[in-house]
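Here is an idea for our session: we take a single protein and study its fold together. To get us started, please write out a protein record for me. Start from the sequence, derive the backbone structure tokens from it, and show both lines together. Go ahead whenever you are ready, and we will take it from there:
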Amino acid sequence: MLRSLVGSEMCIRDSSICDTLREEVRSGFTALREQLDAREKHLLEMVDEAEEKEKAGTLTARQESVDKCCEQLKAKTAEMKDLLAQGVFNNIAAITSEIQESEGELKALRSDIGELQIKVDAQLPTQHAKDAIERVEITAKDGTPGVWFSGNTRPASRPAAGNFTHNSMMQSGGEPMSALSTPIRSRIMPPTGSPSPAPRAIYINGLPHDTSEADLREVLGEFGEIDMVNSRHIASGGFAFVFYTTNEAAARALEKPRITIKGKMVNVLAKKQIVTSPSGTTIA
């Protein structure tokens, strides 16, 4: 019996049970790097195009000013020649003054053409993307952060994202914590019939009727970790409830009252009260 157990232990040690997960991590980050590279290329091309367009537009406008000034000089010079040929000298002084002004303007245009300065009013805010990257983590299917295996039990309370470690999943004796027997819903709403504030919940309306829970998680997950999505009213009413794990995440989502989901602009609103019936059914 002991030999059989030892043999099983050696088999487990010799085989890697996380190869698939490792490959998923590698392929996932490879895809993210490719997306970042493609985005970087697109933005640099956009900058180059905008720069060339601005330079060309500025130089074209300056050239048009120079051409206009030259035309004025030609016209005034021709007018003076005609007056001199006719022996008319009344307007010679005025025309001469206009010619001198045009010459001065032309000289000024030509002298500062090499000193033209174009200032760019643009920037690349990346903090939001950096924050989103920090929220990328390995989780169980129910969203619990960490690497879990079949038979493992979940901790009694889920640590905040970013602070979840292997030690936090173990008791002091080295044994896994007891399983979480209470449904996720009860961690957000009390199991009573009385209303209670739900600052972690937001309300989305105006959704396309074919919106899925995955669509909501993809867009709204950038604001923070999502605990639960109530999407059963989308097909019939075009609205849904999203519950975050922290008040801060919900607050970040509410900072953008209008967002685009599946190509449609939808509304993001605060869900002030959530009522739970004794059976655990959420009543909005």
The helical segments are 2-14, 19-86, 92-111, 127-134, 184-188, 213-220, 234-237, 247-254.
